[in-house]
Amino acid sequence: MSRYIPVRNSAYPILLALFVAIFLISNITSTKGVMIGPLVTDGAFFLFPAAYVIGDVIGECYGFKAARRAIWTGFFVTLIAVAAFYIAIALPAADFYEGQDAFAATLGLVPRIVLASLAGYAVGQLLNAWTLTRMKDRNAGKLWQRLLSSTVVGEFGDTLIFCLIAAPVIGITTVSDTVNFVVVGFLWKTAVEVLVMPITFQVIKWVEKKENFGEVA
């Protein structure tokens, strides 16, 4: 009779997959500079906050080690994706293929953008997970206070690092526009997480129930 390693019925692999996918997609969409009225941001502004929501769920439910594992998984998957993009771009195009320039322009991520994204992501997510789990370990604050505090710390670190490194690459060159880029990005991402905090609460409750863990504090 064949033997297989049993797969545990856990929500963690699902959350991990979503976490990595959102970060990978955001790396591509963030290469586009976006201006909405007087606000300057990038093309990942509407999606990337979801990575912090999922990161909060992982940190709150599974702890810092599990969150750190998810963060580094996303980091290395993105490195693999970037390498694959460059290899695909370098491969000779077929005679009938007319999209080489567009393909290269979209997926040929500028090294500085990759550096900005990876550095901001690693620092911001680690700060977010560390702040949340540290507060929980010390019984410092209720769940909403942990989520809010970790969001502010993590998003500020992420946004500041990403924007300072990436701004010149996407065409932001003046000090005022750079400050605008940082402030708008930070306030937007933080505001989105605050607005969806009730959803984060429910997801945490669902995960804890699925994993037969206690109640939300």
UniProtKB/TrEMBL annotation:
Name it: Probable queuosine precursor transporter
What is the role of the protein in this entry?
A: Involved in the import of queuosine (Q) precursors, required for Q precursor salvage.
Assigned protein family: Belongs to the vitamin uptake transporter (VUT/ECF) (TC 2.A.88) family. Q precursor transporter subfamily.
Enumerate the Pfam families for this protein: Vut_1
Task: Give the UniProt keywords, A-Z.
Answer: Cell membrane, Membrane, Transmembrane, Transmembrane helix, Transport
Give the UniProt entry's GO cellular component terms: plasma membrane
Q: Which domain of life is it from?
A: Bacteria
Its subcellular locations are: Cell membrane
Residues spanning the membrane: 12-29, 35-58, 70-89, 109-131, 152-175, 181-201
Topology within the bilayer: Multi-pass membrane protein
The molecular function GO annotations come to:
transmembrane transporter activity
